[in-house]
């Protein structure tokens, strides 16, 4: 239902449109046939039917018929019509205007219904995709946790200390994986609701990168990873929690979709926009690049890599397709940009740029 305020605006548009066309027709009434003005008014009703609700369109049709009779059919400035031909013409004009208005409005409603149906179908596809992914991504760690706990609780099974340690490690890994998937779902919910409000504070991005790699020690066990950053890298004013999740998701993604032995390089740089050095407003940038020498992204799919629920066609089973879309949302929430490309020698390159305040590490921060 259209709000009352919008309805008032639509009524005003309807009346003013007919008035403007009528005044323009009045200015050339003596040099063109009134039937042409009737066609223009009919065309106006058709245009209004595309944008306005049915009541406002019907009002425009009635006003158009009255204006045609009152201003353009002789005798002028009266609703009286002298001959039957003009009366029939006016009646046909009014009927055609009404039919045109109703049909155009119905077509618009049908198109809206079709779009809503398509949106529901797409939503169901996304919903099914999410369920299919979660059925594997959540069920597997839950089953691991339940199975390990069940084994530990069995009194008739004698477990060695090493066996118990292995089971506890399995529970820990499964719990971390489960927590990762749940965090992604919660973060996507926050992004969809527009609830993300960054809380900027001084962050050591180099330390955040090391923390993310340490959390992913199990996933990175078969990879060679390095972190490149200057020793005098300044602190950047960013949201600590969002940056932690961004780095975690990108490094986790690199560990999952590159072969064993692949290199993962995290580079953090401080840069100043050279175009602004001569001005008072210097733009300082934090540039984070995460690159690997794996398979890279298919060129045909690289533009969809950040789409919600999208997974590469030839990727391995599992995964919800939320990790990269969350990364993009968190980067943009901090007014940053992220680009994805394939390296010439092979592998994927994620580059994030944040225009933020910075603080030299040897400077004391005053809160």
From TrEMBL:
Pfam families: DUF4118, HATPase_c, HisKA. It catalyses: ATP + protein L-histidine = ADP + protein N-phospho-L-histidine. It is a multi-pass membrane protein. Its EC number is 2.7.13.3. It is an enzyme of class 2 (transferase). InterPro entries: HATPase_C_sf, HATPase_dom, His_kinase_dom, HisK_dim/P_dom, HisK_dim/P_sf, Histidine_kinase_KdpD, KdpD_sf, KdpD_TM. The keyword ATP-binding applies. It is found in: Membrane. PROSITE patterns: HIS_KIN. SMART domains: HATPase_c, HisKA. GO terms for cellular component: plasma membrane. The keyword Transferase applies. Keywords: ATP-binding, Kinase, Membrane, Nucleotide-binding, Phosphoprotein, Transferase, Transmembrane, Transmembrane helix, Two-component regulatory system. Residues 133-358 form the Histidine kinase domain. The chain crosses the membrane at residues 12-28, 34-52, 57-77, 89-107. CDD domains: HATPase (cd00075), HisKA (cd00082). GO terms for molecular function: ATP binding; phosphorelay sensor kinase activity. This is histidine kinase. It comes from Flavobacterium silvisoli.
């Amino acid at each position: 239902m259209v709000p009352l305020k919008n309805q008032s605006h639509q009524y005003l548009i309807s009346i003013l449109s007919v008035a403007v066309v009528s005044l323009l027709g009045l200015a050339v009434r003596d040099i063109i046939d009134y039937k042409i003005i009737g066609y223009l008014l009919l065309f106006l009703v058709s245009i209004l039917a595309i944008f306005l609700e049915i009541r406002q369109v019907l009002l425009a049709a009635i006003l158009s018929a009255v204006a045609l009779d009152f201003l353009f059919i002789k005798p002028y400035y009266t609703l009286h019509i002298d001959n039957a031909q003009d009366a029939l013409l006016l009646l046909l004009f009014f009927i055609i205007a009404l039919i045109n208005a109703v049909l155009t409005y119905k077509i618009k409603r049908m198109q809206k219904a079709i779009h809503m149906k398509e949106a529901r179908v797409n939503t169901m596809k996304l919903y099914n995709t999410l369920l299919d992914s979660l059925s594997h991504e959540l069920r597997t760690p839950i089953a691991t946790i339940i199975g390990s706990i069940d084994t530990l609780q069995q009194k008739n099974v004698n477990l060695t200390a090493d066996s118990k340690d292995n089971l506890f490690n399995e529970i820990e890994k499964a719990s971390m994986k489960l927590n990762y998937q749940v965090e992604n779902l919660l973060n996507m919910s926050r992004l969809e609701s527009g609830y993300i409000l960054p809380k900027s504070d001084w962050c050591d991005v180099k330390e955040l990168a090391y923390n993310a790699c340490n959390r992913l020690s199990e996933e990175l066990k078969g990879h060679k990873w390095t972190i490149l950053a200057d020793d005098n890298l300044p602190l950047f004013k960013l949201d600590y929690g969002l940056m932690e999740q961004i780095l975690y998701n990108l490094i986790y993604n690199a560990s999952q979709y590159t072969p064993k032995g692949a290199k993962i390089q995290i580079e953090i740089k401080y840069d100043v926009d050279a175009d602004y050095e001569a001005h008072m407003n210097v733009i300082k940038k934090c540039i984070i690049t995460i690159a690997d020498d794996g398979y890279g992204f298919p060129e045909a799919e690289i533009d969809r890599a950040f789409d919600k629920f999208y997974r590469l066609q030839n990727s391995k089973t599992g995964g919800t397709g939320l990790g990269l879309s969350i990364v993009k949302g968190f980067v943009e929430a901090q007014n940053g940009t992220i680009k994805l490309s394939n390296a010439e020698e092979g592998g994927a390159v994620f580059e994030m740029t944040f225009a933020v305040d910075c603080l030299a590490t040897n400077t004391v921060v005053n809160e």
